[in-house]
Amino acid sequence: MGETIQSVERAAAILRLLASGPRQLGVAELARGLGLPKGTLHGILRTLVHVGFVEQDPATGKYRLGATLLHLGSSYLDVNELRTRSINWADALAGRSRESAWIGTLHEGHVLVIHHVFRPDDSMQTLQVGTYLPTHASALGKVLLAHDPYAEPAEPPLRPHTKHTIIDPGALEEELDRVRTRGWAAEMEELVDGEVAIAAPIKDRRGVVVGAIGIRGAVERLATDGALHMEYVSYVRDAARAITRDLAR
Amino acid sequence: MPRPHYVAAIDQGTTSSRCILFDEGGNIVSVAQREHRQIFPKPGWVEHDAEEIWQNVRGVMSEAVTGAGIEDGQVAALGITNQRETTVLWDRATGRPVCPAVVWQDTRTDALTKALAEHESLFREKAGLPLTTYFSGPKIRWLLDAYGLRERAERGEVLFGTMDSWLLWNLTGRHVTDVTNASRTTLMNIHTLAWDDELLDAVGVPRAMLPEIRPSAEVYGHTAEGVPVASALGDQQAALFGQTCFEPGETKSTYGSGSFLVMNTGHEPVASKHGLLTTVGYQIGDGPATYALEGAIAVAGSLVQWLRDNMGLISSAAEIETLAKTVDDNGGCYFVPAFSGLFAPHWRSDARGVIAGLTGFVTKGHVARAVLEATAWQTREVVDAMNADSGLDLTTLRADGGMTANNLLMQTLSDVLAVPVIRPMVSETTALGAAYAAGLATGYWPDLDSLRANWHKAAEWQPAIDEAAREHEYRNWKKAVARTLDWVEQ
């Protein structure tokens, strides 16, 4: 076993002790329970209170586990929950844009398609829920990469899917900067020749990006003169904002 | 340039009232919603305050219009869809309710409906309905007796209406109801579409208090703002219409707490030999009525909620899919949620719920699978009954409601029914159906074909298991169903 950090171990011991029963504990009791001087505990407790893992009762001055800690394990948004909360807005997006609508989340370095609404023209289409898209070559993926809190760079070599796919890591970084700045991503025939896509981020109540929603369609409809029609961008961003608002409720 | 026009639908439901504005493409433009109180005076009793509901409806109507940033003049028509069977009595002179509204779920008429058992075949043949506590007729009778209102009702001073009728009274000043709502009272003859003296006598309801029965789509009158009020449909019938099930054999299934399957059977009522009920689907203007067979599944989404609230196996309903996907199959486990007996097509009140096939191998993931499969197999049983009664074969199932967000359930449905399952683009099919009917009555939409052109697939699931596997699973399900019987000793 490598080197461990003593204060982290002590913080963990405090949390374990506070979690061992329904009671609140004062500094003296914690000091006795852990065999540590009160002065050492004060600093660690102050830090734990600061990050919300521990709360101090204003009346008694005693300590208990904080609400932030209690929600730590359940703050992850289930993808099926995300689909349920998004479904009406994704339908509306497909209805307004007359294109297929997609929602994706990051899963082991890929975009996992968690929701797909058919293009409303009753042509033969197959449900793509459960399939994967490459992050660097899709609008959904670029949004998710640009807002990935773990900031893992896409691992080279970046595979070309068409001659427009961004395969230079530096160019991809610039593209992701652009996505962060303007709040949406475009995919201009980078995954499939003749297809373009637009995506925008869905955020949870803490502002963390939990998914991306977008549309995909033929270049001659969405970008007649080589440039995206901005009304489609506004449809996508409206849908993303509506879901974000819903998740905040 | 003329300003665009929209159609508004009031969806007066069991827990809330909503107003949704639709554009010509059938897309939602704005939504407003207000919940109303559920009043539980005694176990088994559920009441609403009709006055509160009317105030809420007025509120959501103006909110929806404001929310869309338009004026009343841009609303081309207003349609109504409503919780069915809930019974309101009010004073003709004051327009105020004379007692609480008795909600469809309320079971206070249990003894009364049992006392009517001698007339069972009369109700089956003339009203198309089995004798259960849901329907309005016995609720009216109970209220007349309990509140001493009979004489005033006979003089026409106290009026009856289902929620459509109560809202139409308040919106237009007329005492009318639509034929689909009237078909849920046990008082209307489904062959003649008129109140029936024999049925009225059997239940003990005076004719003078009843509204005039009108088609589901026609201009009944105008609101104070001048908007034509032009449709009324019970909620499940509205969903059938919103799903554009205009041809015999076309079937919709709405997945909420319970589930309602409704199959269009054309212009003749089909008497069920398999425990379904016969109802009016819709009637447009002077046209003939379109009939439907209806089968209800009492426990569908509510079983998922049970797994969440009573078992604590999941923290949100949507997580059932995540849990179910931790395993590849049901592990031999089957869950028959006969929580208050078995409904269509079995009708066994002595049955209670069973989880069958348990072994040491079964995990909570398998139970989650079994929970979703329970909704699929219950659907299969109702579909089999519908096919047998109607002589029509289901070719696709049009699914709507909250549970259609569950991809695994939709796939399982397709697997057990052996037909494609389709989710339409607008999941608010109930409100859409009321809007469609109102828009047809006012010429906003020219004909049924223009409505069909608005209907689009949002998703489609194809059967992915073979016949042998399907039959094997169905056999096991039936064995599990058999194990629910004879539990309650009566």
UniProtKB/TrEMBL annotation, chain A:
<dbReference type="InterPro" id="IPR036388">
    <property type="entry name" value="WH-like_DNA-bd_sf"/>
</dbReference>
<dbReference type="InterPro" id="IPR011991">
    <property type="entry name" value="ArsR-like_HTH"/>
</dbReference>
<dbReference type="GO" id="GO:0003700">
    <property type="term" value="F:DNA-binding transcription factor activity"/>
</dbReference>
<dbReference type="Pfam" id="PF09339">
    <property type="entry name" value="HTH_IclR"/>
</dbReference>
<dbReference type="InterPro" id="IPR036390">
    <property type="entry name" value="WH_DNA-bd_sf"/>
</dbReference>
<feature type="domain" description="IclR-ED">
    <location>
        <begin position="68"/>
        <end position="249"/>
    </location>
</feature>
<dbReference type="GO" id="GO:0006071">
    <property type="term" value="P:glycerol metabolic process"/>
</dbReference>
<dbReference type="InterPro" id="IPR050707">
    <property type="entry name" value="HTH_MetabolicPath_Reg"/>
</dbReference>
<keyword id="KW-0319">Glycerol metabolism</keyword>
<dbReference type="InterPro" id="IPR014757">
    <property type="entry name" value="Tscrpt_reg_IclR_C"/>
</dbReference>
<dbReference type="InterPro" id="IPR005471">
    <property type="entry name" value="Tscrpt_reg_IclR_N"/>
</dbReference>
<dbReference type="InterPro" id="IPR029016">
    <property type="entry name" value="GAF-like_dom_sf"/>
</dbReference>
<feature type="domain" description="HTH iclR-type">
    <location>
        <begin position="5"/>
        <end position="67"/>
    </location>
</feature>
<comment type="function">
    <text>May be an activator protein for the gylABX operon.</text>
</comment>
<dbReference type="GO" id="GO:0003677">
    <property type="term" value="F:DNA binding"/>
</dbReference>
<dbReference type="Pfam" id="PF01614">
    <property type="entry name" value="IclR_C"/>
</dbReference>
<protein>
    <recommendedName>
        <fullName>Glycerol operon regulatory protein</fullName>
    </recommendedName>
</protein>
<keyword id="KW-0804">Transcription</keyword>
<keyword id="KW-0805">Transcription regulation</keyword>
<keyword id="KW-0238">DNA-binding</keyword>
<dbReference type="GO" id="GO:0045892">
    <property type="term" value="P:negative regulation of DNA-templated transcription"/>
</dbReference>
